[in-house]
Structure formats: structure tokens, C-alpha cells
Amino acid sequence: MKPFPLPFVRPRIGSALLALSCCYANVNALAAPPAKIVASLDLSGPASALGQQSLAGIQFALDSLNQHGGVLGQPVTFDQQDNGTNPQRAITQASALVQSGASLLLSPITSGSTLAVSKMVSAKFKVPMCVAVSAAEEITMKDYQPYVFSMAPTTYMLMRAVTTRLAKAPYKRYALLVPDYAGGRSAAERFKTFMKELNPQAQIVVEEYPKLGAIDYTASINKILAAKPDYVWAQIFGADLVTFSKQANAVGFFKQINNHFMTVLDTTTLKNLGSDAPIGTEGYQYAPFNEIEKTPQGNAFVTQFKARTGSYPSDWASVAYDCVTTWAQAVAAAHSTSPDAVMHALETNTFDTLRGKLRFGHDDHEAEVPVYIGKIAKSAQYGQPVLDVDDVVSASVTQPSRAIVDAARQ
Predict the structure, then answer these.
(1) Cβ atoms within 10 Å of 176's Cβ, excluding its own
(2) C-alpha span between 56 and 324 (Å, rounded)
(3) Which helix H or strand E contains 273, and what residues bound it?
(4) Measured between alpha carbons, how far is residue 112 from residues 79, 109, 180, 197, 327 in Å?
(5) At the fourth CATH level, which superfamily is domain 156-286+371-408?
(6) Where does residue 173 fall: left (phi above 0), alpha (psi -120 to 50 degrees), or beta otherwise?
(7) Relative orientation angle of helices 296-309 and 315-334, to the nearest 10 degrees
């Protein structure tokens, strides 16, 4: 299979030709040490589906990168371990992996683990860490440290996009269904804050926080139906969403709430939902394949990923791919894998990604990524349910101001 070409960096100063020569030719090859990427991923436990999909995206990016000469003329190696969705294990593994030598650390999946590894490993050992899945805004706001960069929309960005949409609708009584973990709690607080700001008449009539990886949602389903909300906003995702949807369908939950429901989605979960997918409900995604494939670069990635794996790339695979290839572009721009040089390059350049050209905030290292919102629909074309996207909310609408970021850090 012909490998997908690595996107080229577009520095503000200089030329694409220079970036190309730095990335693929043997410029300084003898002087450049081999680059190594490491990761403690959630390959088992409640977040395992997301971890496994991220791993697929990482491996696809590495194969493509090395088939095109690696970075600075040297191949890129990769080492990873399974943390079992356990924050303490993630810290221990990431620390050992980094100390064995690493040019890039890829973050764990859950926000609690990512926040811990950012502080205890990336910041401590001064190694760049890319965040592909974890959305807790604390990563780039309150608990920001200069060696982290995120290619996932934060809970602040996601909830600004979601509540801006919902505030235009006539709903007043909201129910919240959110897994009890750092990213979920962060999202719930932002949802309530933004909804109060955008629609002061809105009320939160019930809040349910089942544990991550719950196997029985009966109590939460009954409490929500008893509260008779106008709308249910959820942060249930992955395998948890599949479990919840099966139990909800068994009692006609979505019909009883007139499909007034929204949660975070990804391509693989929609496939796994199959006939249990709540068609007509709303959802939001990081990088839906049926949207990114509308560009030539995205189409090449989706086509080749499916040819290799047999499945369309999930959001988690696509964003993990962007983490690796964006770091490689930063190395090309910096002419070095030195952590400080790479982070400076990330702050001062524009990068080609599956979601278009992106820049990073100088003060928070958050990528200017969009949020995709729409309704779940059947698709004969793809042979699985997809998110029929009707709104791509740009970062200019969702990102916090410098004053808000500074206030979060006080």
C-alpha cells in the first residue's frame, strides 16, 4: 500500500521547501540522535476502546513517517505500555518510558491520568507531551505546563459549542448524564456555567454521575425520565454509550424524551452501536471521518486507513495521527528534536493536519481545532450510523480569552 504522505509544515517565516528538506533529506542526519516516541495508553479498562483506537492512529502515522525517512533523516521508534485506565500506573509507566529516552510523550486517554502525567512526568522531565483524547480544560488552563500541547478540543471549547447551539432552542429543563471522572465533571461545570449565561431561564432538573465503566444505568434512566426534562445532555462515550443505549432502548428512553438527547461520539462507537444507535439524537465529535474526508489530504488518510485496518478511522485514531505528524513538522521547523526548540516551533508555526491548517495558542498550547455537531443518521454509503454534521464550530467561537485563562491559573 502506498503510504499516506506526511503533511508539511508551513512556517510563517521561511518556505515549505526548507521544511521539506529538513524533514525528508539527510540534513544533519549524522548529528541528529534517533527520535523515540513513548506512551502509556489505556489498552484495557474502561477507556480501552479509545486507547486501542489511538494506538492504531499512532502506528499508522509512524509507519508513514518512517517510510518517508523519519525525522531529520533518522527513523522514529515507538514504545508503549498498557496502564489499564489507572492514573498511578500511567505515571509510573510514563516516567520509566521517558527516562529510557524519549523525544515525544503521548498522553493517556482519561483526563485524570493525563493531568497526572502532565505534571509528574512531562513537566518534571521536560519532554513534550501531546494530548489527543483528554478534554479537561485544566490541562491547558489551570494546570498548564510549558511542555504540553493539545490537539483535542477542551471541555471549555466543547461546552461553548454545545451550549451556544442549545441556547437557541426552546428547551428550559435539562438533565445531565455524565461519567464521574475529571473530564466529565469539568464538562458538566462548564455546561452549567455557559447555559446560565446564554439562557438564564434554563434549569438543571437532575444530575446523574455514574462511574466510568458502569454496567447498569437503570437508576439513572429512571431518575431522568421521572424528572421529565426537555432535553438530556450527556458525556457518555465509547463502550459506556453502547451499554447505556441498549438499556435505554429497552425502556423506550429516547422515544420518551422525543430524541432530545446529545452526547460526545466517535466513529467506532457509532459502528458498535449499530441498530442501537439513537437515530435522530444529536452529537458532537472531534474529527468525524465523513467530514475530514472532504479534503484531498483527509480523503487519502481515510481511504488508506480503511484499506489497512478494515474500518474507518475513529476520532481518536485521527487525532492521535495528528499528534505524531504535527510533532514531526515541528521537529522539521526546529531542525532539532530538542524539547525547547520543538515547543518554540509549535508556538510559532502553522501546521497541516487532518482538520485543516492549525496554530497553537502561545500561552496555552491548545490547537485551534473545530467542534463538529450534528444528528446521528443511518448511512447506506458507509454501512454504519454516522454523525450528519450540520455545524462546524470554529475555535474563534469556542476558545477562552487570555483573561479567562489567566483567571483559571490564579
Answers:
(1) 21
(2) 12
(3) helix 267-273
(4) 22, 9, 11, 27, 23
(5) Response regulator (3.40.50.2300)
(6) beta
(7) 120
pLDDT tens digit string along 352-406?
Answer: 999 999 999 999 999 999 999 999 999 999 999 999 999 999 999 999 999 999 9
**What's the whole-model pTM score?**
0.90
DSSP single-letter state for residue 24: H
In eight-state DSSP terms, residue 275 is G
Label residue 9 by pLDDT band (50, 70, 90): very low
Amino acid at residue number 79:
D
Reported as type and span, the H/E element at residue 115 is helix 111-117
Spatial separation of the C-alpha atoms in residues 82 and 147, rounded to whole Å: 23
Q: Which amino acid is at 337?
A: T
Amino acid 59 reads Q
Residues 6+ apart with CB under 8 A from 145: 118, 119, 122, 123
Same fold, 10-153+290-358 and 156-286+371-408: yes
| Architecture of domain 10-153+290-358 in this structure | 3-Layer(aba) Sandwich (3.40)
What's residue 30's pLDDT?
A: 46
Determine how β-strand 129-131 pairs with β-strand 104-106: parallel
Measured CA to CA, the distance from residue 197 to residue 191 in angstroms comes to 10
pLDDT for 292-329, tens place per residue? 999 999 999 999 999 999 999 999 999 999 999 999 99
* Residue 77, C-alpha cell as written in the block: 521508534
> Domain-by-domain residue ranges, the chain?
10-153+290-358, 156-286+371-408
Q: Are 407 and 143 in contact (CB under 8 A)?
A: no
